[in-house]
UniProtKB/TrEMBL annotation:
One of its GO terms (cellular component) is cytosol. Keywords: Transferase. The active site is at H251, E306. InterPro entries: Citrate_synth-like_lrg_a-sub, Citrate_synth-like_sm_a-sub, Citrate_synthase, Citrate_synthase_bac-typ, Citrate_synthase_sf. GO terms for molecular function: citrate synthase activity. One of its GO terms (biological process) is carbohydrate metabolic process. Pathway: Carbohydrate metabolism; tricarboxylic acid cycle. Belongs to the citrate synthase family. It catalyses: oxaloacetate + acetyl-CoA + H2O = citrate + CoA + H(+). This is Citrate synthase.
Length: 366
């Protein structure tokens, strides 16, 4: 028996491949390094949904469909205006996405449905955040691409190109990551022939848990401390001497370099000198890996995707409450791809459990 189904193969997929031993992540046959540094969010989303890259016409149509579906409905605005102020953002997303569950989303799920849900999530986040901050809602703009529009709605001004580039790379790298907890949750719900909205609501509820979608707040704290102190090596040595865990290093799946971290670093190296937090992250990684090898030789502790994600969140001044929702705004593409794949050759998930309780009637024989 494997608790939590760890290591158990539950399905076949052609969406992504993870090789933790060798540090590989592949979307539809393409290495993640190539995807993050050569393509835009919309192109990689198209790849995951359709299994191939779009031509110019297909890309234009996808962008137009995303733009068309960015706008909140009157009833969604009414719900958002009446939600309690102490409801966290992931619960807000779960509630508003659930309100999408009309007869339009009947079995089987479609790519058009997936595009609609993907398009609306950034608008939900931006509307809620600006309302909590006492700021007017900034409507989406149809002449901006998906990631650029997200930043525009949050801040009310067009973002700098470095901010768009870094966040877009992060969102491409987190679109999909195999049979993780939230993806499994979505596929289990879909296996009952429930609708796409129900499957994605399940996934959001799973992502909300800190063991899965937890924000890289520990990395933020590390970067803040080093920035204030001014001595990277001193801060890291102090932490290692006190046996503290160095946040942003090591991963439960990858026993070597996290390929998403490598791809994100390649993007950020092109932006050196454009943002102090991105510059600091590159410096901290170099020092930390050297010291980790000194203090923990042979452990192969390298940066994970959360490390550079934290630097990006700092560079675009994203509030910590938006870290997991932003992760959700990208992972929605992977979730919907898996739900559509599940529907193509569906089998109801029905694992067994091992009973370890008592038998009151001891005469029962098995």
């Amino acid at each position: 028996m494997q608790k939590g189904l760890k290591g158990i193969v539950a399905t076949e997929t052609s969406i992504s491949f993870i090789d933790g031993d060798n540090g590989r992540l592949v979307y539809r046959g393409y290495e993640i390094n190539d995807l993050a540094n050569k393509y835009c969010f919309e192109e990689v989303a198209y790849l995951l949904w359709y299994g191939q890259f779009p031509n110019d016409v297909e890309l234009k149509i996808l962008k137009e469909e995303l733009q068309k579906n960015r706008h909140l409905t009157p009833y969604q605005i009414e719900i958002l205006n009446n939600l309690p102020t102490n409801m966290e953002m992931m619960s807000v997303l779960r509630t508003i996405i659930s309100s999408e569950g009309t007869s339009e989303y009947s079995w089987k799920p479609t790519i058009s449905q997936a595009i609609k849900l993907t398009a609306i999530i950034p608008t939900i986040i931006a509307y809620r955040k600006r309302k909590l901050d006492g700021k007017p809602f900034v409507p989406p703009r149809d002449n901006l691409n998906h990631v650029e529009n997200y930043l525009y709605m949050l801040n009310g001004t067009e973002p700098q190109s470095a901010q768009v580039t870094s966040l877009e790379s992060y969102m491409i790298l987190t679109l999909e990551h195999g049979m993780n907890a939230s993806t499994f949750s979505a596929r289990v719900t879909a296996s009952t022939e429930s609708d796409l909205v129900s499957a994605i609501t399940s996934a959001i509820g799973t992502m909300k848990g800190p063991l899965h979608g937890g924000a890289p707040s520990g990395v933020i704290d590390l970067l803040n401390e080093i920035s204030s102190d001014g001595d990277t090596e001193k801060v890291i040595r102090n932490k290692l001497n006190q046996k503290e865990k160095l946040m942003g290093f090591g991963h439960r799946v990858y026993i070597t370099h996290d390929p998403r971290s490598i791809a994100l670093k390649q993007t950020l190296l092109k932006l050196i000198g454009e943002d102090k937090w991105l510059d600091l992250a590159v410096e901290v990684e170099k020092c930390a890996i050297r010291l980790l090898e000194e203090y923990k030789p042979g452990r192969k502790l390298y940066t994970n995707v959360e490390f550079y994600a934290a630097a990006i969140m700092k560079s675009i001044n994203l509030d910590p409450s938006l870290f997991t929702p932003t992760f959700t705004a990208s992972r929605i593409v992977g979730w919907t791809s898996h739900v559509i794949e599940q529907a193509e050759d569906n089998t109801l998930y029905r694992p067994q459990s091992l009973y370890i309780g008592k038998f009151i009637n001891e005469t029962v024989k098995f």
